Structure formats: C-alpha cells, structure tokens
Q: What sequence folds into this?
C-alpha cells in the first residue's frame, strides 16, 4: 500500500496540501465542510500515528517469524534464544511457531506469517518436507527466508548450517583415535539431510582409517528418543559382543545407551566408548559424563537472524538478495564416556 | 479506525455504492476517470484484503505476547510450547520475549508489545520486579494481561499458578514419610515468591511432624545451577554428617547434589534421600534417577493462553474482565533418589 502523505490526502480531495494540513490542525480559516472531509479521509486512511498503520505505510512490520521443529529441545530452544536476542538489538519482535516435523504445519505457518506481513522468516525444514513450492511462493512475494539447521540445497535462499558430514567424521575419527576398532552408529530416519550427512561422515572416517564398513553396525530409529537409545544399546551388544564404540545421532539417544550399558554392567568407556551429538546440558549429568559434538544453537539463532536482517535491508534498498551460506563450526567436547586419545585427532 | 466499506468509499467520493462497486469490478459503463478515482481511494484505504489492514479494521491483531524469564529452560520451554499450541487453535500467533529476570527488560517488552497492538500479554514476573505501575498501564490501555508462574498478589489480573507452598509441603512430607528425620533445604534467593513459598511449605511440613526447624539446615543460593547444587552438597554433608534428606528448590540443583554425593560415595537414597522440584527430563537420566515434584509447564502455558483468550473476548464484548485464578495441581514423582514410603503420604 502506498504511503499515506498529506500530498495523497490533498490529491484525493482535490485540495492543496496546505489546506489539508491546516484542516487537520483545525485552523479557523478553513471552512467546516472542508475540515470534515479532510478529517474523515485522514481517519479512514489512519493518518494518525499508529504502529499497525505505520507498518502499513513503511511496508515494515518489524516482526519476523521463526519456524522451529520442536520447542522443548535443548538445541532448538538455544536457537530461539539466540534469534530473539539478536532481533531485539535490531528492534524486531519474533513470532515463534512449531512444526512438529509436519509438512502441513510448515505450509500453514508460512501462510499465517505472510498474512501477518512479517518482514522475514527463519525456517528449519520439517522432516516431512520434500517439495518447496510453498517456500518459493513466500520468497517470490518479497518476504526473505533464511533456512537454518535443516535446509535443502534446492532452495535459493540464505542459509545457516553446520557441516554435519564433517562433524560426524570428526566424531568417528575421535573414537578411532582413542582406540575403537568396531564402532556402531545409531542413525535417524532415512530422509532428513542431517541423518544422511552424519551417516556419510561416519562412513568416510571408517574408510579413511581402512576400517571396513559393516551395515550390520548401523542402527536406524525413527524417534530420536532416550527410550530408543536404551532399547538399541542392548541390541547392539547382543548383536556384536566385541563392539567397542557407539556414535549416536543425538545426545538423547547416547544417554539412553549409557543408561542401558550401566544396567547391563558394560563398562563405559573401558569396554565401549559412547559419543553423542549436540552437546546438550544433559551430557554433564550422565554417569559417566558424555563426550559429544558441540552444536552451537545460540550462535546459529543469532547468525540466522543477522543474515535475515541483511536480506531484509537489501530488499528495502530495492536490490536483489544474493543468497549467502554461513557455516558455523562444531568441535568435539571430550568427557568420560570415551577413552583418552592414543594419538592426536587429525 | 472505522471499517472501510463500499459505503465509505462512496461517501468520500460522492458516488453511489453501486458505481463504486462497478468501478472496482472494471465495468464498461463506468467512465475511466471515475474508475481511477475509485481504485486510487480503494488502494489508499487498502480495501484489498490485507491482514494488517484487517487488523486495523477489527481492532484486532491476533497477536499475543509471551514474556518469559528464560527460554533455554525445561519448564519455561514447555510453557512456550503449551501456549503456542493453544494459541494456534484459536488463530493467534505468539511473540516470544525473554526478560532474563530483568525489571528493565520487562518494562521495555511491555512497551514494545503495546506498540505492536497485541491483543493480550502473558507475563511471568521477573525476579527483579518490585513495583507494578508498568503492568497497570498496559491493563488500563485495554490490553489484558494474564500472569503465570511468578505472579504478584498485588496485580489485579487473571493468573495461572501452582501452589508452591502445598507442593513443597508435599515434597517434604514425602521425605518424612520415607523415614527422613533431618532434612536440608536448598532454597533460592530471598525475594522471589516461589522460593519464599517453597521454603514455607518445607517449614510447615516439619512443624506438622514435630520436627524442630533448624535454620542451619537451610542453604541459600542466588544462582539455581547444577554447579551450586554440586558445591552445596559437600557443604551440607560436612556441616551435618547425620543429614538424611535434601529437598532442593529445583531439579538442576538436586542433580548437582546427586553428582557430588556420587563422587563423595554418599549412598543415595540409603544414607541421604534427594528430592528435586519441576520434574524435568533430566530426572530420568541421573544415577540414581531423581524423585521430584511434577510442575506442569505445558498445561500452564495452555491454560494461561485460554484464560487470556477468555479475557480478550470479554473485553471485545465491552464487558469488564473479572480476574480469575487457575491453580494447576502438582504431584510427587517418586524415583530412585528417595527411599520407598514407610507410611502413606497424607
């Protein structure tokens, strides 16, 4: 909607801007009928300062949407926190929506946010999302989207990611460097890119160290829960009594593994080393404490907002967005569930 | 702002509504000049469907604000999740803001939300908040506020609470019923109502069971962290070698206590029982698992939104809000950090 100015009011009413201005200020030299016409139109156009109307006039709502797969989740709540902190500094407010990994929810949420005239959207793709028309539609309407964490290479937008392959490679290499020779991997479901990439990283590390890949050592679970880790730990040790390492897709799974190994009197790390992924708070609480890959959620939330802000500003200047990809580094946090390194990690 | 109708467009332009309607539909029997005037005004008035403009017309933004002390926090992230879920069902979006327990932040956030024309606000008071003028101002402007969790009896608004005194009484009673005779209490800082109430609940349970209150058994900490629990556990056992129960203000503190007792080879629960508060996920992960008081965050978030929605509807009907207080029940979740009950909990 075009900006409402004195000039616009004047043009619609066929009056001079001076007359309109005076009418609004209730000058005595303007006749009552004219005053009434001016005030009526100004009211209709909401010429009075008003945040919603200002939003309309500036084409800015100073609102952004943050679509998150799961709120009650250490990594994602860190992302929310980082995003809100960065947004606050720039005077933006953040609408938070949860997809629960549902494609339908993702579509609905994007629609809602468009209707709310948000200035931009941060989106982590749901595990169910396989086509991207709904995302392209939003971008085509001039609302920038920045993808974070769960992304698709097929979407032309800015992105904030971690290199899951590299992170998983490093985690597996760490287990090998600490003496593990037979490492099981608990992976997520087939589809999400993160589980694919971490699986590839695991395989690459084995290959690099001339350890033959054995598909029987890969355990897949749909739900990345503590309970699944607990269940699979027993299966792993039953299937492969000489297994000496477990690399789990998330800390939650790894925590379930640790608990079950405790119960089964499988010494960790003396017999089996366990490595998680994410470096949640709970890694410090388990017995033994859990070695993990640090995945910087707060920083990811901050950087995702900053990237979105940059794209919003670019659009505002009438320029074209050149999508940018930021990779946030990860690192291993060794704790007591893995043995000390026997040689330096490469 | 008055609703933009065909009638209004017609009145401003001095045309009939039929002419305006036809002009908008580009009927051939309307002259081009008239069409241009109508379309220009309709565009200026944003007569096209548009959510911001609809918001203006209905005086509704369908946005609410949720002010939360801390996002990366199991209990509060459950509240966010419950609130967003309930809001979604009613077609509301939720702006999330974090205070970090700062009074200044709380004031700023309320201002921002007012400027954003939210329909209502959910607020948990920051620990620093001692006066309530800023809250009264918002309520006086016709924006309903519902307080949740950390509330003040001095604010006239709807509230969703748990009865911290009762919950702490029950937790202490549970320890007594399981055979504890000398129970330490790790409490929070002096000011927040929740720490005061849980402390009172602890004292009342001792009194009811004719156990003399000993202030030396009460340990205060400003930061409710794992590290503080870890630190205080050693101090408790050094100060009182015959202590046989610890009731901690939060699970995080209790988890630190458990870890330290593990390291000090203090058998839990054989020598000392440990009871937490909140029933976070981490209670299932500790060794031994942690008995706790279940504090239903998700439900609190849902109910807080529902109460706010009710208040918003009341205001919309032009009626006065009659503040309502909902108390959400808590219950003990016994796990392995406390002994089995020797008699029934009252």
A:
């Amino acid at each position: 909607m075009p900006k409402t100015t004195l000039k616009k009011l004047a043009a619609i009413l066929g009056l001079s801007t001076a007359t309109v201005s005076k009418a609004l200020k209730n000058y005595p030299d303007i006749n009552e009928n004219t005053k009434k016409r001016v005030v009526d139109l100004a009211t209709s156009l909401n010429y009075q300062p008003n945040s919603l109307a200002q939003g309309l006039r500036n084409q800015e709502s100073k609102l952004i949407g943050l679509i998150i797969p799961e709120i009650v989740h250490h990594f994602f709540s860190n992302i929310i926190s980082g995003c809100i902190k960065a947004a606050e500094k720039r005077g933006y407010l953040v609408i938070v929506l949860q997809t629960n990994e549902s494609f339908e929810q993702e579509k609905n949420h994007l629609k809602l946010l468009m209707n709310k005239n948000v200035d931009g959207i941060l989106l982590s793709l749901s595990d169910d999302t396989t086509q991207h028309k709904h995302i392209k539609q939003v971008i085509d309407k001039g609302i920038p989207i920045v993808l974070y964490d769960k992304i698709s290479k097929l979407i032309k937008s800015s992105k904030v990611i971690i290199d899951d392959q590299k992170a998983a490679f490093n985690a597996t290499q760490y287990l090998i460097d600490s003496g593990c020779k037979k490492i099981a991997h608990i992976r997520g479901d087939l589809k999400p890119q993160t589980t694919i990439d971490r699986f590839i990283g695991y395989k690459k590390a084995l290959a690099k160290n001339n350890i033959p890949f054995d598909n029987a050592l890969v355990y897949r679970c749909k739900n990345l829960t503590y309970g699944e880790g607990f269940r699979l730990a027993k299966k792993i040790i039953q299937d492969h009594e000489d297994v000496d390492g477990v690399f789990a897709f998330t800390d939650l799974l790894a925590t379930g593994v640790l608990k079950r190994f405790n119960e089964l009197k499988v010494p960790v790390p003396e017999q089996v080393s366990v490595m998680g992924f994410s470096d949640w708070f709970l890694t410090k609480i388990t017995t033994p404490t859990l070695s993990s890959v640090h995945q910087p959620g707060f920083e990811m939330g901050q950087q995702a907002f900053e990237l979105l802000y940059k794209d919003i500003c670019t659009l505002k200047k009438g320029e074209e967005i050149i999508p940018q990809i930021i990779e946030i580094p990860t690192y291993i946090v060794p704790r007591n569930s893995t043995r000390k390194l026997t040689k330096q990690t490469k």
About this structure: Chain B is about 45% helix and 15% strand. Chain B touches chain A through 55 residues (CB under 8 Å).
